[in-house]
Design goal:
7-stranded mixed beta sheet, Immunoglobulin-like, mainly beta, 5-stranded parallel beta sheet, single chain, rod-shaped, 20 strands
Length: 254
């Protein structure tokens, strides 16, 4: 049987062996080749969709043609497609477990399939390395985990103002920034609370860009005699360290 499409967006359903052509302004929207049928496409205009075989059958359905086919859905696991010259498939949908190699009597035709199940094929990408969808994404950059390993302090007094200065030295690893809170009689905050400066009992907070690879000074001023705790977290690439706490009393012995 011979079928010629003369209309725009023509749909053809092949229940028996058929030759399908296109005349004039005619275009092919879809072709359905039922199991047991053999369809040969003699035109060269693109086909939007090809359905090969009936669901859950193994009778076999055959399509031959050299057109560019946007989407192919295979239902019959014994179906076959011969693309001939210049034939291509945009996206191929196969039944579960079907090997795409078994679909093509000519093994080279598999190289003309751009996607299988929406995933670019290796053969297509080897022939089209400039296609952006084929480029392997760069591996994620590994960000070392920051840590605070020690906090020490020394106390001094300004002879002119009698203000008490406490100089903290924070020892850390893999950090670009430090955050701290000073609290009075409160529980241990989490890292986000230290970074945001809103830990319970906070009387002072701040952040500082580190200028040394392992140690950073934090100078602060306090009133005499009270006991406080400083909590510090280090940050690197958006990652926060565990919270490190150090109790201290800003007091000068007389």
């Amino acid at each position: 049987m011979k079928v010629t499409c003369e209309n725009v967006n023509c749909n053809v359903e092949a229940l028996v062996n058929a030759k399908i052509g296109v005349d004039g302004a005619g275009t092919i929207s879809g072709i359905i080749v039922h199991s047991g049928a053999d369809a040969e496409y003699t035109g060269d205009k693109p086909i939007q969709k090809l359905v090969l075989g009936d669901p859950n059958t193994t009778i076999g359905a055959t399509f031959t043609g050299s057109a560019n086919i946007e989407n192919v859905t295979v239902n019959d696991t014994n179906g076959s497609i011969t693309l001939k010259s210049k034939g291509t498939i945009g996206n191929l949908i196969l039944p579960p477990g079907m090997d795409p190699k078994s679909l093509f009597p000519n093994p080279g035709d598999l190289n003309n399939v751009a996607e299988i199940g929406g995933v670019r094929t290796a053969s297509y990408c080897s022939l089209n390395p400039s296609d952006s969808s084929c480029r392997t994404p760069a591996p994620p950059v590994s960000v070392p985990t920051p840590s605070v390993t020690d906090v020490t302090y020394s106390v001094g007094i300004d002879p002119e103002t009698s203000a008490i200065h406490v100089n903290f030295v924070v020892t850390f690893q893999n950090a670009s920034k430090l955050y701290y809170v000073i609290v009075n009689d409160a529980g241990v905050p989490n890292a986000d609370a230290v970074k945001d400066g809103n830990a319970a009992g906070t009387i002072d907070s701040g952040s500082i860009d580190v200028t040394d690879s392992t140690n950073q000074e934090i100078p602060l001023t306090f009133e005499n005699g009270y006991e406080y705790t400083i909590y510090v977290v280090a940050e690197n690439g958006g990652r926060l360290s565990d919270v490190y706490g150090q109790n201290f009393v800003p007091m000068i012995s007389s």
